[in-house]
Amino acid sequence: MKPHAITEAPADAATRKAVKPVICYPVEGLPRPDLAAYRAIRDDLETVDRVIVPPREAACWTVPSGHFFRIHSVEGPQVGDLNLFNASNVEERLYTGKTRALNGTHVGLGDQLFSSFPYLRPIATITHDTLDWYGFDEFGGSVHDVIGTRCDPYTHNLLSHGGQYHHCCHSNLTRAFARERGLSPKEAERHIHDVLNVFMCTGFTRDTGQYFMKASPVRPGDYLEFFAEIDLLGCMSACPGGDCSSEHSSDKVVCHPLEVEVLKPKRLPAGWVPPAVNGYDGSHGL
Predict the structure, then answer these.
(1) Per residue, what are the HEC states of 241-282?
(2) Does the N terminus or the C terminus of the chain have fewer Cβ atoms within 10 A?
(3) CB neighbourhood size of 234 (10 A)
(4) Closest by alpha carbon to 42, among 220, 264, 261?
């Protein structure tokens, strides 16, 4: 929370503040997915896997390139913290910062999730969202953010003056990834990264600029659907904050499981090819 200003405003303060903003990354030249082609193959999908993510725990699953996966609300309002990796090279993983810069603070239908440097390419495309009606509310809140980092035991320790809590999303993801890859917790932890907060309703307060959360509008039957642009390994935590209406990192709030469904289409989208890794030569001017 920022302190009150102690510097006297200059005479031209109003003029300086009135300068119009400029979009940092104009995306007119960014290749966009043919959403109609993706959606044209959604009517005849075969379920090939289902994974239950237990409350206050995490689970992993794989999705072959060219398949869909859906994250379902099944029993009650629940937020999920999602990590995505290249299934054959976990050094390539979801890069929420660049995804945010190219799409906005919250993602939805037609948006693509981008991977980390030096790969920087779309790894998943959102093809359906039953919460797309929500938009932005009067508080500036919306769903599916790429701004929150994930609840974690280190921040919990700071804010609770030494508390130890092991079911934060960061720890949940670490345990699940360690089991999936046969790694020690220390080895696994370095791969856990900033998340897509599935179903979470968040924003920034207008007066202090603080990150806020509020009760998720998700209900059983809602889902968020992705098309896998590359072979993916997913890892998701069912947040210990439940619907995040009051607190997280807690054993007191009501939590529910989430379900992940992997679906195989009968055909690939017309004209689709897997995205190549980024074409930058990596010399950095040397």
Answers:
(1) CCCCCCCCCCCCCCCCCEEEEEEEECCCCCCCCCCCCCCCCC
(2) C
(3) 25
(4) 264
Burial class (CB in 10 A: 0-12, 13-18, 19+), 62: middle
CA distance 235 to 191: 11
Radius of gyration of the chain (CA): 20
Q: Check residue 8 and give its pLDDT.
A: 95
User: How many helical (H) and strand (E) elements, i.e. helices and strands, does the chain have?
Assistant: 6, 13
Q: Is 49 exposed, middle or buried (0-12, 13-18, 19+ CB in 10 A)?
A: middle
pTM to 2 decimal places? 0.96
Position of tokens 């904050």?
A: 241
User: Can you tell me the distance from the alpha carbon of 28 to that of 11, in angstroms, rounded to the nearest whole number?
Assistant: 38
State the virtual CA torsion across 62, 100, 133, 232 in degrees, nearest 10.
Answer: -10
Element (H, E) at 70: strand 68-73
Mean pLDDT to the nearest integer, 177-196: 98
**Can you give the residue ranges of every domain in the chain?**
49-149+193-265
Which residues touch 30 (CB under 8 Å, ≥6 apart)?
102
